[in-house]
Protein backbone atom coordinates (compact mmCIF):
# COMPACT_ATOMS: atom_id res chain seq x y z
CA UNK A 1 0.00 0.00 0.00
CA UNK A 2 2.86 2.36 0.70
CA UNK A 3 4.72 1.09 -2.31
CA UNK A 4 5.52 3.14 -5.41
CA UNK A 5 3.37 2.14 -8.37
CA UNK A 6 5.44 1.20 -11.38
CA UNK A 7 4.63 0.17 -14.88
CA UNK A 8 1.56 2.35 -15.44
CA UNK A 9 1.58 2.33 -19.22
CA UNK A 10 -0.08 4.05 -22.16
CA UNK A 11 -3.71 3.60 -21.12
CA UNK A 12 -3.34 4.88 -17.57
CA UNK A 13 -1.73 7.74 -15.72
CA UNK A 14 0.29 7.35 -12.54
CA UNK A 15 -0.88 9.64 -9.76
CA UNK A 16 1.76 8.72 -7.22
CA UNK A 17 2.71 11.45 -4.76
CA UNK A 18 4.30 11.25 -1.30
CA UNK A 19 1.60 10.03 1.08
CA UNK A 20 1.55 11.48 4.60
CA UNK A 21 1.32 8.80 7.26
CA UNK A 22 1.09 11.07 10.31
CA UNK A 23 -1.51 8.82 11.95
CA UNK A 24 1.23 6.30 12.65
CA UNK A 25 2.74 8.74 15.13
CA UNK A 26 -0.23 7.89 17.36
CA UNK A 27 -0.32 4.15 16.64
CA UNK A 28 0.66 1.45 19.13
CA UNK A 29 1.32 -1.27 16.59
CA UNK A 30 0.46 -2.45 13.08
CA UNK A 31 -1.15 -5.59 11.69
CA UNK A 32 -0.38 -5.64 7.96
CA UNK A 33 -2.48 -8.14 6.00
CA UNK A 34 -1.13 -8.74 2.52
CA UNK A 35 2.52 -8.29 3.40
CA UNK A 36 4.19 -9.35 0.14
CA UNK A 37 7.92 -9.07 0.96
CA UNK A 38 7.58 -6.40 3.66
CA UNK A 39 8.50 -3.40 1.54
CA UNK A 40 7.38 -1.00 4.28
CA UNK A 41 9.52 -2.53 7.03
CA UNK A 42 11.97 0.41 7.21
CA UNK A 43 9.08 2.87 7.24
CA UNK A 44 7.46 1.14 10.23
CA UNK A 45 10.82 0.84 11.93
CA UNK A 46 11.26 4.61 11.80
CA UNK A 47 8.13 4.85 13.95
CA UNK A 48 9.50 2.10 16.24
CA UNK A 49 6.25 0.18 15.86
CA UNK A 50 5.69 -3.50 16.57
CA UNK A 51 4.38 -5.09 13.38
CA UNK A 52 2.60 -8.33 12.54
CA UNK A 53 3.01 -9.18 8.85
CA UNK A 54 0.62 -11.71 7.24
CA UNK A 55 1.38 -13.23 3.82
CA UNK A 56 -0.18 -16.39 2.32
CA UNK A 57 2.12 -17.39 -0.59
CA UNK A 58 4.86 -19.78 0.59
CA UNK A 59 7.72 -18.54 -1.58
CA UNK A 60 6.84 -14.88 -1.01
CA UNK A 61 6.58 -15.56 2.72
CA UNK A 62 10.10 -17.00 2.68
CA UNK A 63 11.38 -13.73 1.17
CA UNK A 64 9.44 -11.78 3.78
CA UNK A 65 10.99 -13.76 6.62
CA UNK A 66 14.44 -13.12 5.21
CA UNK A 67 13.77 -9.41 4.84
CA UNK A 68 12.69 -9.13 8.48
CA UNK A 69 15.98 -10.40 9.90
CA UNK A 70 17.28 -7.74 12.23
CA UNK A 71 13.85 -6.15 12.80
CA UNK A 72 13.24 -7.23 16.38
CA UNK A 73 9.81 -5.58 16.61
CA UNK A 74 8.44 -7.21 13.43
CA UNK A 75 7.07 -10.75 13.03
CA UNK A 76 5.59 -12.62 10.07
CA UNK A 77 2.93 -15.34 9.83
CA UNK A 78 1.88 -17.31 6.77
CA UNK A 79 -1.91 -17.28 6.52
CA UNK A 80 -4.69 -16.41 4.11
CA UNK A 81 -7.06 -14.07 5.95
CA UNK A 82 -10.75 -13.85 4.97
CA UNK A 83 -14.12 -13.82 6.73
CA UNK A 84 -14.17 -17.57 7.51
CA UNK A 85 -11.99 -20.19 9.15
CA UNK A 86 -10.85 -23.29 7.29
CA UNK A 87 -12.37 -22.44 3.91
CA UNK A 88 -10.41 -23.55 0.86
CA UNK A 89 -9.52 -21.01 -1.85
CA UNK A 90 -7.63 -21.09 -5.11
CA UNK A 91 -5.15 -18.29 -4.54
CA UNK A 92 -3.89 -16.81 -7.82
CA UNK A 93 -0.22 -15.79 -7.86
CA UNK A 94 0.76 -12.89 -10.11
CA UNK A 95 3.85 -12.35 -12.25
CA UNK A 96 4.84 -9.03 -10.63
CA UNK A 97 6.59 -10.65 -7.67
CA UNK A 98 3.19 -11.57 -6.25
CA UNK A 99 2.09 -7.96 -5.66
CA UNK A 100 -1.26 -8.43 -7.46
CA UNK A 101 -1.99 -11.94 -6.16
CA UNK A 102 -5.57 -12.54 -5.06
CA UNK A 103 -8.33 -15.04 -4.38
CA UNK A 104 -10.24 -13.14 -7.11
CA UNK A 105 -9.80 -13.14 -10.87
CA UNK A 106 -8.40 -10.09 -12.62
CA UNK A 107 -10.91 -7.82 -14.32
CA UNK A 108 -10.43 -4.09 -15.03
CA UNK A 109 -7.08 -4.19 -13.25
CA UNK A 110 -5.73 -5.02 -16.73
CA UNK A 111 -6.70 -1.57 -18.00
CA UNK A 112 -4.08 -0.03 -15.73
CA UNK A 113 -1.50 -2.80 -15.58
CA UNK A 114 -1.90 -4.85 -18.79
CA UNK A 115 1.40 -6.61 -18.18
CA UNK A 116 0.12 -8.24 -14.98
CA UNK A 117 -1.15 -11.81 -15.21
CA UNK A 118 -1.57 -14.84 -12.97
CA UNK A 119 1.02 -17.55 -13.46
CA UNK A 120 -0.35 -20.25 -11.15
CA UNK A 121 -2.86 -20.96 -8.41
CA UNK A 122 -2.23 -22.59 -5.05
CA UNK A 123 -4.90 -24.07 -2.80
CA UNK A 124 -4.94 -22.39 0.61
CA UNK A 125 -7.18 -22.58 3.66
CA UNK A 126 -8.37 -19.37 5.22
CA UNK A 127 -8.49 -18.02 8.73
CA UNK A 128 -10.13 -14.99 10.28
CA UNK A 129 -7.89 -12.40 11.85
CA UNK A 130 -9.15 -13.01 15.43
CA UNK A 131 -8.52 -16.75 15.03
CA UNK A 132 -5.02 -16.11 13.71
CA UNK A 133 -4.17 -13.82 16.63
CA UNK A 134 -5.45 -16.37 19.16
CA UNK A 135 -3.56 -19.18 17.45
CA UNK A 136 -0.29 -17.25 17.46
CA UNK A 137 -0.70 -15.77 20.94
CA UNK A 138 -0.79 -12.16 19.73
CA UNK A 139 -2.22 -9.64 22.20
CA UNK A 140 -4.46 -7.29 20.19
CA UNK A 141 -3.98 -4.63 22.87
CA UNK A 142 -0.52 -4.01 21.42
CA UNK A 143 -1.84 -3.41 17.90
CA UNK A 144 -4.39 -0.70 17.16
CA UNK A 145 -3.77 -0.26 13.41
CA UNK A 146 -4.88 -2.58 10.60
CA UNK A 147 -3.33 -2.11 7.15
CA UNK A 148 -4.64 -4.17 4.24
CA UNK A 149 -3.46 -4.85 0.71
CA UNK A 150 -5.27 -8.04 -0.28
CA UNK A 151 -6.22 -7.15 -3.85
CA UNK A 152 -9.99 -6.92 -3.68
CA UNK A 153 -10.80 -9.07 -0.64
CA UNK A 154 -10.33 -6.36 1.99
CA UNK A 155 -13.99 -6.37 2.96
CA UNK A 156 -13.76 -10.10 3.71
CA UNK A 157 -10.83 -9.40 6.02
CA UNK A 158 -12.87 -6.71 7.79
CA UNK A 159 -15.96 -8.88 8.16
CA UNK A 160 -13.90 -11.62 9.73
CA UNK A 161 -12.25 -9.06 12.03
CA UNK A 162 -15.50 -7.70 13.52
CA UNK A 163 -14.74 -9.07 17.04
CA UNK A 164 -11.51 -7.05 17.21
CA UNK A 165 -12.63 -3.89 15.41
CA UNK A 166 -13.44 -2.19 18.76
CA UNK A 167 -9.74 -2.57 19.64
CA UNK A 168 -8.60 -0.69 16.53
CA UNK A 169 -8.07 3.04 16.13
CA UNK A 170 -6.94 3.16 12.50
CA UNK A 171 -7.68 1.12 9.38
CA UNK A 172 -5.79 1.78 6.16
CA UNK A 173 -6.51 0.02 2.91
CA UNK A 174 -5.77 0.03 -0.78
CA UNK A 175 -9.11 0.04 -2.63
CA UNK A 176 -10.52 0.99 -6.03
CA UNK A 177 -13.82 2.59 -6.96
CA UNK A 178 -14.28 0.19 -9.91
CA UNK A 179 -14.29 -3.59 -10.41
CA UNK A 180 -10.56 -4.12 -10.58
CA UNK A 181 -10.96 -7.80 -9.66
CA UNK A 182 -14.07 -9.84 -10.35
CA UNK A 183 -16.54 -9.26 -7.53
CA UNK A 184 -14.07 -7.23 -5.49
CA UNK A 185 -15.06 -4.80 -2.77
CA UNK A 186 -14.97 -1.16 -3.76
CA UNK A 187 -14.39 2.15 -2.02
CA UNK A 188 -18.06 2.66 -1.20
CA UNK A 189 -18.39 -0.85 0.27
CA UNK A 190 -15.43 -0.45 2.61
CA UNK A 191 -16.45 3.04 3.70
CA UNK A 192 -20.02 2.00 4.47
CA UNK A 193 -18.91 -1.04 6.48
CA UNK A 194 -16.39 0.87 8.56
CA UNK A 195 -18.85 3.68 9.21
CA UNK A 196 -21.23 1.11 10.67
CA UNK A 197 -18.44 0.08 13.04
CA UNK A 198 -17.54 3.54 14.29
CA UNK A 199 -14.91 4.71 11.79
CA UNK A 200 -14.80 7.76 9.53
CA UNK A 201 -12.57 8.48 6.58
CA UNK A 202 -9.49 10.45 7.66
CA UNK A 203 -7.66 10.83 4.35
CA UNK A 204 -7.70 9.52 0.80
CA UNK A 205 -4.86 9.52 -1.72
CA UNK A 206 -5.24 8.40 -5.36
CA UNK A 207 -2.31 6.53 -6.87
CA UNK A 208 -3.52 5.14 -10.22
CA UNK A 209 -6.34 5.89 -12.65
CA UNK A 210 -8.05 4.06 -15.51
CA UNK A 211 -8.17 6.08 -18.70
CA UNK A 212 -11.79 4.91 -19.05
CA UNK A 213 -12.69 6.05 -15.53
CA UNK A 214 -11.98 4.69 -12.08
CA UNK A 215 -9.30 5.33 -9.47
CA UNK A 216 -7.19 3.32 -7.04
CA UNK A 217 -6.77 4.89 -3.61
CA UNK A 218 -4.94 4.48 -0.34
CA UNK A 219 -7.58 5.36 2.26
CA UNK A 220 -7.17 5.77 6.01
CA UNK A 221 -10.09 5.51 8.44
CA UNK A 222 -10.04 6.54 12.09
CA UNK A 223 -12.32 5.52 14.92
CA UNK A 224 -14.64 8.37 15.85
CA UNK A 225 -17.06 6.60 18.17
CA UNK A 226 -17.43 3.40 20.14
CA UNK A 227 -18.96 0.53 18.26
CA UNK A 228 -22.69 0.25 19.01
CATH architectural group: 3-Layer(aba) Sandwich
Structural class: alpha/beta
In sequence order, what are the helices and strands, one letter per element? EEHEHEEEHEHEHEHEE
Q: CATH homologous superfamily, by name?
A: Vaccinia Virus protein VP39
User: Which runs of at least 5 residues are low in confidence (pLDDT < 50)?
Assistant: 1-19
What does the radius of gyration come to?
Answer: 16 Å
Helix content: 10-25%
**Rough shape?**
globular
Short structural summary:
The chain is α/β, with parallel strands linked by helices.
What would your notes on this structure say?
This protein has 228 residues and is of the alpha/beta class. It is 20% helix and 29% strand. It has one domain (12-223): 3-Layer(aba) Sandwich (Rossmann fold). The protein has helices spanning 41-46, 58-67, 109-112, 129-136, 154-160, 187-196, and strands at residues 12-14, 30-33, 51-54, 74-77, 80-81, 88-94, 118-127, 145-148, 170-176, 199-210, 215-223. It has an 8-stranded mixed beta sheet with strand order 1-10-11-9-8-2-3-4. The chain has a 3-stranded mixed beta sheet with strand order 5-7-6. It starts with 11 loop residues before the first strand and ends in a 5-residue tail after the last strand.
Amino acid sequence: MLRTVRGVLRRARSLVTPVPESFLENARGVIHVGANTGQERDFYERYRLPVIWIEPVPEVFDQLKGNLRGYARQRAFRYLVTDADDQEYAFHVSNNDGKSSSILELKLHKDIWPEVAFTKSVMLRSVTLPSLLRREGVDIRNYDTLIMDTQGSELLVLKGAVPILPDLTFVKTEVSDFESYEGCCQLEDVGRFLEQHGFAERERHPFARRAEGGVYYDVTYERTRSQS
